[in-house]
Model the fold of this input.
Amino acid sequence: YNNFNAGPGPVTLNGSAIYSNQAIQLTDQGQTGVTAGLIFNYITGSPQLSGFTANFNMAIGPTTTGNPADGVSFAVGTLPSTWGEGGPGTARSLAVGFDTYENGGTGSIGIHLWVNGNHIAVNPTNPYTNGTLVPVQISYDQTNGISVSFNGTTIFTNVNVTGFTFQSGDQFGIGAHTGGAAERAIIDDVQ
Done:
């Protein structure tokens, strides 16, 4: 469990990610064109790992650029130092994206699932919270697939994610991105 009260703890902050106000701020409301990565150094995957449950609080917003953009994603697998709402896009990764900007197609506003860089599902729930921290739960196991709840609402239940398996050295992390518009993205109370 990391509530960040005593500092960032055993994490790596990349790109625009900073420790601020006893939480991790991935992007800020006036920061356009930035990407962030928060890597949890204290947990790694291995072939023996068959699943996980991640709980954290997330706030997306406010914005000072009119429209909020672009979003946040939780990911596990081979992770780069920074990534955005579409997940890391690596050949071995499982990601849940929280997209707040309408780019059309797989970049629509909503909560998305990505496996090995491929988009597999979307729920049109808008994840923009206007700065309010809300609970997120992501559960995965090799038998039942992935389930996601956001702010107390079930978004996905037992979605099959064929093609993803844990490997030695897999990382867990959260990334965020802004483009021509921006938003503040905060992560807290990770367990």
Summary: The first strand starts at residue 11 and ends at 15. Residues 13 and 176 are 12 Å apart (CA to CA).
